[in-house]
30S ribosomal protein S6--L-glutamate ligase (Aquimarina rubra), 290 residues
Amino acid sequence: MNIKILSRNASLFSTDALVQAAVKRKHNVQVIDPLNCDIVIEKKKPEIYYRGKKLDHVDAVIPRIGSSITFYGTAVVRQFEMMNVFTTIQSQALVDSRDKLRSLQILSKAGLGLPKTVFTNYSKDVSEVISHVGGAPLIIKLLEGTQGLGVVLAETKTAAESVLEAFNGLQARVIVQEYVKEAKGADIRVLIVDGQVVGAMKRQGKEGEFRSNLHRGGSASIIELSEEEENAAIKAAKALKLGVAGVDMLQSERGPLILEVNSSPGLEGIQIATGKDIAKSIIRFIERSV
Ligand code: ADP
């Protein structure tokens, strides 16, 4: 099969792991930078040119679109869809998953457990927002944040008020969320491919840190999921229509609470923690689907 990986950097662990997995299964694979693709739109003749050369006979694409290029990257994926090329992540699912608020709305409708969350339009009434999530301590998150940056734990009501006022003053969009204390600085990342769990790890934040992101010094270990956690992860990926997804959840007294669902989940941490070849599962998903 002729597979294209849409990624800006062929030397990234995840991109390279996908290339290796495709080669091992005897596919023809190429990494292409979506920013170097030209989209040509004409009646019934959608085309893509990569570095000036028309892309023909592509069977499948694997989008690995970073959040900084969501708009253009999504347009390229959509063009492949118009050319009837299979994609592991559909363009609309990519758009939905990139918007934290929109994904939470979709997940809530699907009946998934979530930390109680409030979004307001630069509200002047900060006190009321705080009372919606049951008071301090609480979490304030920048809507555009990734890798734990822009996630703040406000321990007291006064701290929460000043942080919210500061963000409001900067016109930065934030969500306010109940702080799930019993998660104890840990979360669970579940990798879903084609509706199945293919790997799961628990991430623990470093000493004194409530954020468990590996980029913030957290450590990962393999975990056996409960049936409830497994079902929640599968349901979350399905609700967002993602063929490949990294579902993040907190363990709480009322069961798993979904934090977010990533459409280009990193493979390094999870492959090392679980010893599983997740890239191979993604290639096999393509083989079954094309
Ligand atoms: P990002 O997308 O930047 O990683 P997250 O929403 O995943 O942002 O938050 C980063 C980390 O902070 C999570 O992995 C989790 O450990 C912690 N965290 C986030 N929200 C909460 C919450 N409501 N209660 C407790 N811990 C949280």
User: Anything to note?
Assistant: The first strand starts at residue 2 and ends at 6.
